Amino acid sequence: MRLPEMIVSSFFRKGKEKCWNTLKDSGKFEEPLKFLGNSEILSDHFFAIIQKFFCRLYGYNIKNIDVVRFKVFQIKHSRQKKIPDLASLPPCQLVLCYHSMKAIAVAYIWK
User: Fold this and answer.
1) d(C-alpha 41, C-alpha 101), whole Å
2) Within a domain: 1
3) Is residue 83 assigned to a domain?
4) Cβ–Cβ < 8 Å for 36, 107
5) Distance CA 36, CA 64 (A)
6) Closest CA to 55 of 71, 40, 78
7) For the chain, which ranges sit under pLDDT 50?
8) 39 vs 2: CA distance, rounded Å
């Protein structure tokens, strides 16, 4: 089986530039991400860091992506007075976990 040249995964309306700026501005995510790919296992500690990063990416300084997802849903629902496009919400914790495991596996293979 041949691996694809590039595997790109993104989140709805969150481009690579926004992710990069969030990573640079905070300063506390760079050090843990250096170790991405050293192991093929997603540890609880590393997943907590990933959750904090994605909470920051969506504009919240909290630790739980599910709370951010609910807050974004509330804001969009109150503005639009209808159910918002669910693709515009942050991923739930389980989906973020799967994306993280995929990223770790790819980084481990490349490293």
Assistant:
1) 8
2) no
3) yes
4) yes
5) 21
6) 71
7) 1-5
8) 22
Structural domains in the chain (count): 1
How buried is residue 55: exposed, middle or buried, by Cβ count under 10 Å (0-12/13-18/19+)? Answer: buried
Long-range CB pairs of 46-49 (<8 Å, 24+ gap) are 46/100, 46/104, 47/97, 47/100
Q: What range does the domain containing 56 cover?
A: 16-110
Q: What is the pLDDT of residue 65?
A: 95
Closest CA to 107 of 57, 2, 26, 35: 35
Percent of the chain with pLDDT over 70: 89
Whether 3 is in a domain gets the answer: no
> Which residue in this structure is represented by tokens 């500690």?
45
Please enumerate, as own/partner, the contacts of 43-46 that have beta carbons within 8 Å and a separation of 24 or more: 46/100, 46/104
Residues paired with 11 in a beta bridge: 14
Q: What is the pLDDT of residue 79?
A: 86
| Cα dihedral: 72, 75, 79, 83 (round 10) | 50
